[in-house]
Amino acid sequence: MSIGTQMKTLDSPVETGAPRNPRIPALDFTKGALVLIMVLYHWINYFISPGWKYLFYLRFLTPSFIFITGFMISHVYLSKYATTDSQLSKRLIVRGMKLFAIFFVLNFARELIVPVLGTGIAVDRMMISPQVLVDFFASGNLPDYGPKLVSFPILVSISYLLLIAGVLIPLYRRYRYTFHVACISLFLASVIFGYADARNYQIESVAIGMLGVLTGFLPIRTIDNLGRRSYLLAFTYIGYLVAITIWNVPFLLLIIAVLLNLCILYLLGTRASTNSSIRNEVILLGKYSLVGYISQVAILQILSKGYQRLDLGAAKLPSSLFAAVVFTVLAVKMVDLARARSSEADRLYKMIFA
Question: In a 10 Å sphere around its CB, with 0-12 CB exposed, 13-18 middle and 19+ buried, how is residue 3 labelled?
Fold first, then answer.
């Protein structure tokens, strides 16, 4: 499984004396839309096939979440903390370590639960075996073990980005182009690994995240102005679809895929009616993107087991997809409601995800 967000790790406000930057509804809409597309991706894995030949059209999902994480680092964090504030580095590093912990807990739980559910998904090797640690954590590639060996892989890539950003913050205080140098270095490393036929997905992911950091330095009005070129965006997207159909998704096309898809989703978020209930539900998903990500995987595990016992014929695929979307939205709404009604639930949520 190669998908995954920018997740809720960067959704919570920074608690400082500085004024809060207002949330950007179009950005939350973008994250929420990505969560829904991710439901589609995971549903395909469970109800059609993990090797479905058209899945590469959704290859932009994981790096899109990582790009947004980078965007939030510079647009939100660096605007709320003074560059001399050492707490920023600590906060990013702690959040990165939390994501690592969540990743391990979820995968250990998966190894225990999947055999009980009997979904037909094999978990035949321990996730923490030395070979898996080298292959996955170093390169992000597990070609010999199958796509279901580890779940929630995006958490690791986002952790790397947060940890590296936390380490770079002290350097950024002394040299304002620190993140520019880091981004260029990571892109060069990605190209070198590619030419050496040793493509490294972790380095590519962090490179795209660093590109998100650089984008976050732009004024939000500059990003909003992208919507004025919708016809050019549509024309470019058609060309991109033709290109990936021919060449699949090499690293260069992956970058284009991330930028184009995020631009389109952000544009939809800016143009959607503020009174639309669907828009508001998508925005709520964006605010709790990590919850949506985790819950949808669990929901689809349960649905895939349940649907094995049902003979629904042609209704199986549409009904299962609809159920996955509905239950994912309900899971997020339950978490939001629990936080609003219980201070203990709110504290627990912040302790885990904030």
Answer: buried
The answer to whether the CB of 233 falls within 8 A of the CB of 267 is: yes
Angle between helices 316-341 and 289-307 (to 10 degrees): 140
Backbone dihedral region for residue 16 (phi beyond 0: left; psi -120 to 50: alpha; all else: beta): beta
Measured between alpha carbons, how far is 25 from 41 in angstroms, rounded to an integer?
24
Q: Which pair of structure tokens corresponds to residue 316?
A: 């199986």
Residues 307/320, Cβ–Cβ less than 8 Å: yes
Q: Which two tokens stand for residue 63?
A: 């790096």
Q: Which residues of 19-54 are buried (b: 16+ CB within 10 A; e: fewer)?
A: eeeeebbbbbbbbbbbbbbbbebbbbbbbeeeeeee
Sequence-separated (6 or more) residues with CB below 8 Å from residue 338: 345, 346, 349
| pLDDT tens-digit map of 210-265 | 999 999 998 888 887 876 777 888 899 999 999 999 998 899 999 999 999 999 99
Q: What is the pLDDT of residues 48-59, one digit of tens each?
A: 988 888 998 999
Give me the count of residues in the chain.
354
CA-based end-to-end distance of the chain:
25
Closest-CA residue to 268 (of 311, 233, 220): 233
In angstroms, rounded to a whole number, what is the distance separating the alpha carbons of residues 61 and 220? 22
What's the CA gap between 337 and 73, in Å, rounded?
27
Is residue 203 within 8 Å of 193, Cβ to Cβ?
yes
135 vs 142: CA distance, rounded Å: 6
The pTM of the full predicted model, rounded to 2 decimals, is 0.86
